[in-house]
C-alpha cells in the first residue's frame, strides 16, 4: 500500500457483495486493496437500528472523534460526560491489517456488535468503507426508499 496523506480521498465509491470466511476475514478486490491507507481501524457505526462497521484510516477516525466534541468547544478531560462519550467511542474501535493473502481480519466482537453474518455488503465513500450484513443493508435501503425524499434534510 502506498503512503497517502491522512485524509486523502479514497475513491472507493459503490456497493459490492462479499463473503466472510470462518475466521472473520473479508477478501477485498485489488481495486480496493491498493487504495487503502496504512493504519486501518474499524469502528461500530452510531446507527443502532441499522448497524454497520466503518473502516477508515486512524487519521480519519481521530478527526471523527474530535468532531464529537466540537459543539462543546472540544474535548475536556475534566468533563465526566466527555470522558464517558470518549470511552463509548473508543470501546468500539479496533486496528486492522491485511493478512498475507490480502484479507481484512475483523475481530469477532465487531461482527457481533454490527450483527454481521457470512454475507456482507461493502459500500465505499471518499474516506471510508462501510461493512453491512446483507439483510441489515437491505432493510436500510427499504427504509431510505420508504422516505421518498432519500432522507434529505437540506437543499444543496
What's the name of the CATH homologous superfamily? Answer: Transcriptional regulator MraZ domain
How many DSSP E strands?
8
Distance linking N and C termini: 35 Å
> What is the C-alpha radius of gyration, as a whole number of Å?
16 Å
* Strand residue content: 15-25%
List segments where confidence is low: pLDDT < 50 over at least 5 consecutive residues.
Answer: 1-9
Shape: globular
Strand order of the largest sheet: 1-7-8-4-3-5
> Which CATH architecture is right?
3-Layer(aba) Sandwich
CATH class: Alpha Beta
Q: What letter string, H or E per element, gives the SSE order? A: EEHEEHHEEHEEH
Largest β sheet strand count, sense and barrel closure = 6 strands, antiparallel
Average pLDDT over all residues? 82
**Overall tally of domains:** 1
Structural class: alpha+beta
Oligomer: single chain
Give the proportion of residues in helices.
25-40%
Count helical runs: 5
The CATH topology is given as: Chemotaxis protein chec
Amino acid at each position: 500500500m502506498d503512503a497517502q496523506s491522512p485524509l486523502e480521498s479514497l475513491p472507493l465509491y459503490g456497493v459490492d457483495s462479499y463473503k466472510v470466511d470462518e475466521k472473520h476475514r473479508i477478501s477485498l478486490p485489488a481495486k480496493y486493496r491498493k487504495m487503502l491507507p496504512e493504519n486501518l481501524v474499524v469502528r461500530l457505526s452510531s446507527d443502532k437500528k441499522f448497524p454497520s462497521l466503518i473502516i477508515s484510516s486512524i487519521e480519519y477516525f481521530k478527526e471523527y472523534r474530535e468532531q464529537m466534541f466540537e459543539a462543546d468547544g472540544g474535548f475536556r478531560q475534566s468533563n465526566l460526560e466527555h470522558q464517558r462519550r470518549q470511552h463509548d467511542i473508543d470501546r468500539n474501535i479496533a486496528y486492522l491489517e491485511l493478512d498475507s493473502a490480502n484479507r481484512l481480519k475483523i475481530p469477532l466482537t465487531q461482527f457481533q456488535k454490527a450483527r454481521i453474518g457470512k454475507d456482507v455488503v461493502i459500500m465505499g465513500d471518499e474516506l471510508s468503507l462501510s461493512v453491512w450484513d446483507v439483510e441489515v443493508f437491505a432493510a436500510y435501503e427499504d427504509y431510505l426508499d420508504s422516505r421518498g425524499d432519500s432522507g434529505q434534510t437540506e437543499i444543496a
